[in-house]
Amino acid sequence: MSKTMDMEEMLQKIKDRQWALADIDWDAPGAELITDEMRPRLKAFMADLCWIENVGARGFAAMAKKAPNDTIAEIYRYFHAEEQRHANAELALLKRWGMLEDGEIPEPNVNIRLAIEWLDKYADDMSLSVLGTVIPMLEVALDGALLKFLLDEVNDPICHAVFEKINNDESRHIAVDFAVLDMLGHAKARKLAIEFVSGVASPGLIIGALMYIPLLNRVRNEVVDMGLQPERLYVAMGRFKKLGDRGEATHRVPLYQVLKWHAAMVINPKHPYHLLANTMVTLSDHYPKFLLRPIPTWFKELTYEPVSSTVSKPGARKDAA
Amino acid sequence: MSTATTEKRPRTKKPRKTHSTLIIGAGFTGLGTAIKLREAGVEDVVILERADRVGGTWRDNTYPGAACDIPSLLYSFSFAKNPNWSRAYSPADEICAHIEDITDDFDLRQLIQFDTEVTALDYDRHEGTWTASTAGGQQYRARTVVLASGPLSNASFPNIRGIESYEGKKILSAQWDHDYDLTGKNVAVIGTGATAIQIIPEVVKKAASVKVFQRTPGWVMPRLDMPTPKVAQAVFAKVPAVQQAARNALFLSHEVAATGLVWDTPVTSLIERIGAAHLRLTVKDPWLRRQLTPEFRAGCKRMLMSSDYYPALQKDNCKLITWPIATIVPQGLRTADAVEHHVDAIIFATGYDVQLGGPPYPITGAAGRVLQEEWAGHAQAYKSASTHGYPNLFFTAGPNSGPGHNSLLVYVQGQISYAVAGIRTILDKDLVSLDVRPDVQAKHNESMQKRLKRTTWMSGCTSWYLTKDGFNGAMYPGFATQYLRQMQNFRADDYEMVSHGARRLWNVPAAEAV
Predict the structure, then answer these.
(1) What's A52's domain CATH number?
(2) Any chain A CB within 8 A of the CB of B210?
(3) Across B34-176, where does the E strand assignment appear?
């Protein structure tokens, strides 16, 4: 990654490459290629994928507030919307495959719910160096493993067309992510140390880690259940290291080192880390529902409808959870 | 708005005579200048107005909800008070009626040339006169000119991708189409600035649905608007001193706000807290509150005054959308979250063509230089009123004259008295030209820019006060009191003067003197 990425140029490129649900023919043939056998697991997986995109979107919303300049802030504003776009498109695929009733939005699992709570409470207070390190990890995992795996499994041409668009967006996201991470690495060592210590010592980040570990393992287990070779996920996590180490100063960001170390543990299926992580997944299944706070309104903005003609207020709907 | 067409150029008609003063624009400022000039004994005044009525911005801006956001008692001239303001913040039509009343009360109508749009201003350095060319072909000549055409008098559709493809109704806030009925329509509003926050609550009352597209949220302060009690109106009418006292009190309270709105101080943080509390008290949903929370210092962009904007946004038929607009399409707009919004009409409340680089018509000065070219980089003037190379010409709302905390008309009053003092000097001393000294102007601007550094406007946001490269040639860095003191002090020493008498003495060839 070049530290001299021209952000103005990147912003213009982002503006030029916008697409919408209306660009896609959701009724085109191909939906029948989804087998009944695939359906239940594919639905669970796609639902998680779509919620993870939405969680990523919220992360960019937090980053927009921390951006070092107006151009990067505007880029993050677009990325926030684009992650939402990906979630909307994935929802539209679910709808196309007949996996959603009219008006149905899939239920987020408990780890997603906990991640949302965390984001809503802490994300806006996290420093750019924390957000700027965690988000690329999430995106690389998504982009490198989950999406590519999906395309191997699903033959629907519309699904391929949609994910080609999503992947193009994601490659821009990842390029900017790592350019910013490198930029952060150029800060003074003292500033990096202070931000790291204050960031890590904060209850926010500790709780965040407690959310992140089981979320990652749950998705890992899910895709493995679906037949994904765990190596694929590991290759993707390895890419985080590869892209990061390419940066001139990225290695100086302490949290980057922590995540890299964490990724190495996740990659090794025999590492005792998985005992801890999988125990956390099981535990989270028993997380008392009444402790979950109401779902924030931003989480209910997802839609598979390409066109909106009137005002629908998600916040006005009573939350059943 | 303009009725002139440029397709067929009309025949130029030379000026019949040389007037003492030409005033361009018959809004508050132009009319106020005429009143004060006549008070000072300058009778030969002509006002050129492009429309067929007086009123300026208050005639043009007739969008639903249009009103002033400074209390009417202060948003008026101290020499032409109105005891009958119906509300604390008067609606546009009442302000416009007040301007009509002033025109009649001071017998100004005879001075005004309506339907006369100025297309160019040229200075004749030998004669020391200005010639205004107009769209109709008639030229006007005068020894002095006051530019009162306003800094926000023009508006146009913004340059949004795909705008030309839209097949629905496009409405520009500054050119509202009253023949189009919004009742039952699905409407988009683009913009959330001072104009939009007045339009939205009104449109929400009528339309089936209203989607508000926001790029940057501003600081919104509650606007305590209420009807003026009949008793107060009666007292104001009988004892003008009471109205003046109320006006003074309002003036002082706004001056206090300058300590937070002009300069970046702990008071700025206090104002932000009030804004945040207003948001917390009126908006229930935490995510909507987050979307509406500004990310710049209070005062950095224009403060918004409204008590009905936040409630309107939360009505069942209204929704705030903060996704970037990707493009406008034939049936509506697409946002970056991939959704296409179909609407019957789009209201563009996207601001004005801010004239930071001078009026929209070319002004050619003494050395044949064009003002707009000189100001294309950074506009600058002396005391916001005069600029070197353009003698006998007085600006209103000129460079570094904008208030961020007080009534614009208070500042305009200062500009009028400065222009009147200058014009009186030219006429009394029988001057060919009165041109501000370049060194005086440079020193003034150096001080302006130095003082601007500590202001909220320079605290890091981008606003229409600043040029693209971040230069502030718009706002005055100080209290209104300081500005008025500056404007009340016309110092002839600051100007280069050439008198007709001196010309004769130095034996300037007759051909040049004519």
Answers:
(1) 1.20.1260.10
(2) yes
(3) 45-48, 112-113, 118-124, 129-134, 139-147, 169-172
Residue B5: is its pLDDT beyond 60? no
Look up the CATH superfamily of B155-216+302-351: FAD/NAD(P)-binding domain (3.50.50.60)
Q: Is B335 on the interface with A (CB under 8 A)?
A: yes
- SS3 category, B264: coil
Its domain, for residue A292, covers 39-301
Task: Check if B446 contacts A (Cβ < 8 Å).
Answer: no
Confidence of residue A321 (pLDDT cuts 50, 70, 90): very low
Is there a contact between B339 and A15 if contact means CB atoms under 8 Å apart? Answer: no
Instruction: Check CB contact of A20 with chain B, cutoff 8 Å.
Output: yes
Residue A52 lies in a domain: yes
How many domains does the structure of chain A reveal?
1
Interface with A, mutate which of B337, B343, B344, B462 (most A CBs under 10 A): B337
Closest partner CB to B319 (pick from A74, A81, A313) = A313
CATH of the structural domain B18-152+354-513, one choice from 3.40.50.12500, 3.50.50.60, 3.30.70.860, 3.40.50.300: 3.50.50.60
pLDDT at A145: 65
**Shortest CA distance to A93 belongs to which of A39, A159, A28?**
A159
- Condensed to tens digits (0 to 9), the pLDDT of residues B368-392 reads 999 999 998 799 999 999 999 999 9
Note whether B16 contacts A: Cβ–Cβ < 8 A. no
B209: nearest CB among A22, A81, A310: A310
**Rounded to a whole number, what is the distance in Å from the CA of B281 to chain A's nearest CA?**
18
Q: CA A32 to CA B240: how far, in whole Å? A: 83
Average pLDDT, integer, range B103-112: 97
Contact check, Cβ <8 Å, A313/B323: no
Q: Does B286 touch chain A (CB under 8 A)?
A: yes
Q: Which helix (H) or strand (E) segment is B432 a member of?
A: strand B431-436
Q: What is the pLDDT of residue A251?
A: 79
Residue in chain B nearest A296 by alpha carbon:
B287
Please give the Cα distance from B399 to B384 (Å, whole number): 5
Kindly report the average pLDDT of chain A as a whole number.
Answer: 82
Per DSSP, the three-state class of B122 is: strand
Task: Write out pLDDT tens, residues A98-149.
Answer: 999 888 888 888 888 888 888 888 888 887 878 888 888 777 776 666 777 7
Model confidence at A203, pLDDT cuts 50, 70, 90, reads low
pLDDT of the residue at B401: 95
CA distance A152 to A145: 11
- B211 closest CB neighbour out of A82, A307, A311: A311
Flag if A315 and B319 touch (Cβ within 8 Å). no
What local confidence, expressed as pLDDT, does residue B80 receive?
94
A252 within a domain of the structure (yes/no): yes
Chain A to chain B Cβ contacts (< 8 Å): 87
Give pLDDT, residue B502: 77
Task: List chain A residues with CB under 8 Å of B462.
Answer: 70
The domain limits of chain B are: 18-152+354-513, 155-216+302-351
With respect to residue A317, please indicate whether it lies within any of the assigned structural domains.
Answer: no
Which of A15, A18, A172, A311 is most worth mutating to test chain B (most B CB atoms within 10 A of its CB)?
A311
Are B18-152+354-513 and B155-216+302-351 in the same CATH fold? yes
> How confident is the model over B434-461, as a mean pLDDT?
95
Q: What is the pLDDT of residue A198?
A: 63
Contact check, Cβ <8 Å, A20/B326? yes
B67 Cα distance to chain centroid: 14
Q: Quick one: tokens of B177?
A: 């189409």
Triad B430, B433, B436: Cα angle to 5°: 125
Measure the CA–CA gap between A271 and A259, rounded to whole angstroms: 16
Q: Does B334 touch chain A (CB under 8 A)?
A: yes
**What are the pLDDT digits (tens) for B256-304?**
999 999 999 999 999 999 999 999 999 999 999 999 999 999 999 999 9
Residue A65 lies in a domain: yes
Contacts of A68-71 with CB under 8 Å at 24 or more apart are: A68/A128, A68/A183, A69/A7, A70/B462, A71/A7, A71/A8, A71/A11
